[in-house]
Amino acid sequence: MTIRILLAVAGLLLLAVAADHLVVGASRLAPRLRISPVVVGVVVIGLGTSAPELLVSAVAAARGDAGIALGNITGSNILNLTMVLGVAALVAKVTVRSTVIHREVPLAVTAVLLFGLLAWTGLTVVTGAVLVLAVAGALWLLVRWAGEGRNTALAREIIDYADGDDVTGADPATVAASREAAQRQRPAWFEPVRTVLGLAGVLAGAQLLVVNAATIATDLGVPQLVVGITLVAVGTSLPELVTTIQAQRRGESDLLVGNLFGSNLFNSLVGGAVIAFAAPASVPRANVALVVVMGLTALAAWALLRRSNSLTRPEGSVLLAAYVLTMPLLLAA
């Protein structure tokens, strides 16, 4: 048992480190491919930080551990908008200046509600096809909105994040010079290799985590859904937490909000589709309590942000308290 726990922890750590390199590598590589910064923010970074959830769920579903897969997606969706967003608000007030809260965020909330409804009725090949169509529609909207070029605040923060600028408000000439120097120091192959190795590391970490978490659940007689909601969901949400802390430390609140809601969008649509196609006959139905908490969490976080385009420390404390109070209820349901 001790060895299994250590291996699961090793998988969690590998997931966190590899996902960070995957996100940074992909976000730096994307501009070279002439991808819009806003697309990088809501698609590349959102999808990159969701890679642990997606790969863990895919591995779990393919192994027949569908309870872990479903618990991972639902648990991560809840955790991202309670604990992670709450921690960000406690660090400093979250103020959103871009249009992300009026377009991308409602789209992500809709995706979560759709996934919750389908998970409650049962994830099958048919519902998986519905989620694939929803993914295609969401990507079309995100790319279209990015092409309008109105999200300049978010675009600027994404560029700063990808370039690794640590000092907010630095002299523009100094920042530009440091960027050029860093680009000259890194060979052209560095970021592509970093991205591929990050993806490989996430896959290896997912395998380590799922295999050992499933064994631990069996040995302790704990339902796989419970393990997925707790241990696995916390581990796969570490990349979102890392990105959130980095963005908040630099004052990049638009990127922070876009990343968390974008991650939930991809968790729900892509993750739900992966589970549905990988194990359509063995996926347990999500209970009503789990679906309701996940939906209310998304709606509450959106409502708090939309009220004044900001999230204060007291409101962040409310989100943290919501996670602490609802988790025992979900585990007992």
Descriptive overview:
The chain is mainly alpha-helical and 333 residues long. The chain is 82% helix and 1% strand. Helix 3 packs parallel to helix 12.
The string of secondary-structure elements, in order, is HHHHEHHHHHHHHHEH
Oligomer: single chain
Rg? 19 Å
Total number of strands: 2
Helix content percent band: over 70%
What is the percentage of strand-forming residues? under 5%
CA-to-CA gap between the ends? 27 Å
CATH superfamily: NCX, central ion-binding region
What's the CATH C level? Mainly Alpha
Task: Provide the CATH architecture.
Answer: Up-down Bundle
Descriptors for this entry?
single chain, 333 residues, mainly alpha, A middle domain of Talin 1, two-stranded antiparallel ribbon, 14 helices
Would you spell out the secondary-structure blueprint of this structure?
Layout: H1 2-32, H2 37-49, H3 51-62, H4 66-91, E1 94-95, H5 104-121, H6 125-148, H7 152-163, H8 172-185, H9 190-220, H10 224-236, H11 238-249, H12 253-278, H13 288-308, E2 310-311, H14 313-332
Antiparallel strand pairs: 1-2
Helix pairs in contact: 1-2, 1-7, 1-9, 1-11, 2-6, 2-7, 2-12, 3-4, 3-9, 3-12, 4-10, 4-11, 4-12, 4-13, 4-14, 5-6, 5-12, 5-13, 6-12, 7-12, 9-10, 11-12, 13-14
Quick recap of the structure?
This protein is mainly α.
